[in-house]
Write a structure and sequence with these properties.
metal-binding, 10% strand, Ribonuclease iii, N-terminal Endonuclease Domain, Chain A, single chain, 2 domains, metal ion binding, rRNA processing
Length: 258
């Protein structure tokens, strides 16, 4: 199959990102091709089928990694780690940092909208790349890619019982007599593949935005971001406690030297 100059350029760029030269470049091209670029063509020419396969392979790779990394963790904890790692937000973030946003082949209908479905496209492309590697290089090829790009994000913290960010934010703001409100500000993507963007407000002040595959997930992400920015997250508290301890230790050392 003959590829256009743009397609060939993006295939080469994608291979550099993945770190593997495909024996069948057509599989890789399909993995980075948005459905908008294949309107009127068989479904095999876009990432839709590969995404389906990649979702299952990725789940198995992550489950296997978590199983061996945390031998004392129960099923619930392992499940939470897997869900956190393969979530849309996680995969789209990894794919964006790798540079996949610049190699996705979009159709003219999507280009004209400023690529409004980029968030979900990045998630889908990551899963499709995993499938493409599995088909072209075998399970080892897929495992090496996931092991290099996604598994390093795995943490035991992901196994903890999740807090409800919306409830946590409401509790914090109500200490000041404020009840947070949420507003849907944007809907991205086609009807079958929606991504929602919500903002959370404290009175008239916008605190943060969040993105998700459902309105509920978007609101939850907005609340989580707001908690982080306001310094209410567990991470920020831990950082503050660490800084306080370091400061205390420095004072003690200075005093002992004096």
């Amino acid at each position: 199959m003959t590829h256009t100059e743009e397609q060939q350029s993006k295939i080469e760029a994608a291979q550099r990102i993945v770190g593997y030269e495909f024996r069948d470049p057509a599989i890789l091209l399909a993995a980075i091709t948005h459905p908008s670029a294949t309107e009127g063509m068989p479904v095999k020419f876009s990432y839709e089928r590969l995404e389906f396969l990649g979702d299952s392979i990725l789940g198995a790779i992550v489950a296997n990694a978590a199983f061996h990394e945390y031998p004392d963790l129960d099923e619930g904890g392992l499940t939470r780690i897997k869900v956190a790692l393969v979530s849309g937000a996680s995969l789209s973030s990894v794919a964006e940092k790798l540079g996949f946003a610049d190699v996705i082949v979009f159709g003219s209908s999507e280009r004209g909208t400023g690529r409004r479905g980029l968030h979900s496209a990045l998630e889908n492309v990551y899963e499709a790349i995993v499938a493409a590697l599995f088909l072209d290089a075998g399970i080892q090829g897929a495992q090496e890619f996931v092991g290099r790009t996604l598994i390093p994000r795995m943490s035991i913290d992901m196994a903890r019982e999740p807090e409800n960010p919306k409830s946590a934010l409401q509790e914090k703001l109500q200490e000041e007599g404020i009840t947070p409100t949420y507003k849907l500000v944007e809907t991205q993507g086609p009807p079958h593949d929606r991504t929602f963007v919500s903002q959370v407000f404290a009175g008239m002040k916008a605190l943060a935005s969040g993105m998700g595959r459902t309105k509920k997930e978007a609101e939850s992400q907005a609340a989580k971001t707001a908690l982080d920015s306001l310094g209410f997250s567990k991470t920020s508290k831990a950082d503050k406690a660490k800084a306080k301890q370091e400061k205390k230790q420095a004072r003690a050392e200075k005093k002992s030297k004096g």
